[in-house]
Amino acid sequence: MKTEAIAKRLVELCREGKYEDAQRELYAEDAASIEPDGLPPGALGSVQGLAAIYEKGRQFGSMIEAVHGGNVSEPVIAENWFSIAMAMDVTMKGRGRVNMSEICVYRVHGGKIVREQFFYDVG
Protein backbone atom coordinates (compact mmCIF):
# COMPACT_ATOMS: atom_id res chain seq x y z
CA MET A 1 0.00 0.00 0.00
CA LYS A 2 1.08 3.55 -0.64
CA THR A 3 1.36 6.11 2.17
CA GLU A 4 -1.85 7.93 1.26
CA ALA A 5 -3.90 4.71 1.24
CA ILE A 6 -2.40 3.63 4.57
CA ALA A 7 -3.08 7.04 6.10
CA LYS A 8 -6.70 7.08 4.96
CA ARG A 9 -7.27 3.53 6.18
CA LEU A 10 -5.73 4.32 9.57
CA VAL A 11 -8.00 7.35 9.95
CA GLU A 12 -11.04 5.27 8.96
CA LEU A 13 -10.30 2.54 11.51
CA CYS A 14 -9.39 4.99 14.29
CA ARG A 15 -12.65 6.88 13.77
CA GLU A 16 -14.43 3.55 14.31
CA GLY A 17 -12.41 2.90 17.49
CA LYS A 18 -10.71 -0.12 15.87
CA TYR A 19 -7.16 0.68 16.96
CA GLU A 20 -5.88 -2.88 17.29
CA ASP A 21 -7.46 -3.82 13.94
CA ALA A 22 -5.57 -0.90 12.40
CA GLN A 23 -2.31 -2.07 13.94
CA ARG A 24 -2.88 -5.66 12.81
CA GLU A 25 -3.63 -4.57 9.24
CA LEU A 26 -1.26 -1.66 8.72
CA TYR A 27 1.78 -2.05 10.98
CA ALA A 28 5.06 -3.88 10.41
CA GLU A 29 5.98 -6.62 12.90
CA ASP A 30 8.97 -4.58 14.14
CA ALA A 31 7.17 -1.21 14.30
CA ALA A 32 8.21 1.30 16.96
CA SER A 33 5.81 3.33 19.09
CA ILE A 34 7.40 6.43 20.62
CA GLU A 35 5.92 8.45 23.50
CA PRO A 36 7.14 11.86 24.71
CA ASP A 37 9.93 12.21 27.24
CA GLY A 38 9.01 12.96 30.84
CA LEU A 39 6.17 10.49 31.36
CA PRO A 40 5.45 9.76 35.02
CA PRO A 41 6.60 6.44 36.50
CA GLY A 42 4.26 3.62 35.53
CA ALA A 43 3.00 5.41 32.43
CA LEU A 44 2.88 3.59 29.14
CA GLY A 45 6.15 4.42 27.42
CA SER A 46 7.86 3.74 24.12
CA VAL A 47 7.88 0.16 22.83
CA GLN A 48 9.26 -1.85 19.91
CA GLY A 49 7.40 -4.60 18.05
CA LEU A 50 3.80 -5.24 17.20
CA ALA A 51 3.11 -7.49 20.21
CA ALA A 52 4.32 -4.73 22.56
CA ILE A 53 2.22 -2.14 20.70
CA TYR A 54 -0.88 -4.34 21.14
CA GLU A 55 -0.16 -4.69 24.86
CA LYS A 56 0.41 -0.95 25.25
CA GLY A 57 -2.96 -0.29 23.62
CA ARG A 58 -4.69 -2.83 25.84
CA GLN A 59 -3.15 -1.30 28.96
CA PHE A 60 -4.30 2.16 27.89
CA GLY A 61 -7.79 0.84 27.16
CA SER A 62 -7.98 -0.76 30.61
CA MET A 63 -7.39 2.68 32.18
CA ILE A 64 -10.48 4.13 30.50
CA GLU A 65 -13.77 3.95 32.35
CA ALA A 66 -15.92 5.65 29.67
CA VAL A 67 -15.49 7.28 26.26
CA HIS A 68 -17.61 10.40 25.76
CA GLY A 69 -16.32 11.46 22.36
CA GLY A 70 -13.33 12.17 20.21
CA ASN A 71 -12.16 12.91 16.73
CA VAL A 72 -9.46 12.12 14.23
CA SER A 73 -8.36 14.66 11.62
CA GLU A 74 -7.72 14.06 7.97
CA PRO A 75 -4.10 13.04 7.35
CA VAL A 76 -1.36 15.37 6.17
CA ILE A 77 0.97 13.41 3.89
CA ALA A 78 4.61 14.06 2.92
CA GLU A 79 6.14 11.21 0.91
CA ASN A 80 6.63 8.32 3.37
CA TRP A 81 5.36 10.28 6.39
CA PHE A 82 1.93 11.38 7.52
CA SER A 83 0.40 12.99 10.56
CA ILE A 84 -3.02 13.23 12.14
CA ALA A 85 -4.45 15.07 15.12
CA MET A 86 -6.45 12.97 17.58
CA ALA A 87 -8.60 14.03 20.51
CA MET A 88 -10.46 11.99 23.12
CA ASP A 89 -12.95 12.96 25.81
CA VAL A 90 -12.75 10.13 28.33
CA THR A 91 -13.25 9.28 31.97
CA MET A 92 -10.07 7.68 33.28
CA LYS A 93 -10.28 5.25 36.18
CA GLY A 94 -9.29 7.11 39.34
CA ARG A 95 -8.67 10.41 37.49
CA GLY A 96 -12.08 11.54 36.33
CA ARG A 97 -13.02 13.05 33.00
CA VAL A 98 -10.22 14.41 30.81
CA ASN A 99 -9.85 15.81 27.33
CA MET A 100 -6.71 14.58 25.60
CA SER A 101 -5.31 15.77 22.29
CA GLU A 102 -2.17 14.82 20.42
CA ILE A 103 -0.37 14.98 17.12
CA CYS A 104 0.50 11.54 15.77
CA VAL A 105 3.29 11.16 13.20
CA TYR A 106 3.75 7.95 11.21
CA ARG A 107 6.48 6.63 8.92
CA VAL A 108 5.64 4.15 6.18
CA HIS A 109 8.19 1.78 4.67
CA GLY A 110 7.60 -1.30 2.55
CA GLY A 111 3.85 -0.74 2.56
CA LYS A 112 3.52 -0.81 6.37
CA ILE A 113 3.70 1.65 9.26
CA VAL A 114 7.15 1.19 10.83
CA ARG A 115 7.05 4.05 13.34
CA GLU A 116 4.47 6.03 15.23
CA GLN A 117 5.34 8.96 17.45
CA PHE A 118 2.99 10.90 19.68
CA PHE A 119 3.28 14.54 20.69
CA TYR A 120 1.22 15.84 23.61
CA ASP A 121 1.70 17.73 26.85
CA VAL A 122 2.94 15.53 29.66
CA GLY A 123 1.58 16.46 33.06
UniProtKB/TrEMBL annotation:
Q: Which Gene3D superfamilies match?
A: 3.10.450.50
SUPFAM superfamilies recorded for this chain? Answer: NTF2-like
User: What superkingdom does the record give?
Assistant: Bacteria
User: In what residue span(s) does the SnoaL-like domain sit?
Assistant: 1-120
Q: Under what name is this protein listed?
A: SnoaL-like domain-containing protein
Q: Which organism is it from?
A: Rhodanobacter panaciterrae
- Lineage, top ranks: Bacteria, Pseudomonadati, Pseudomonadota, Gammaproteobacteria, Lysobacterales
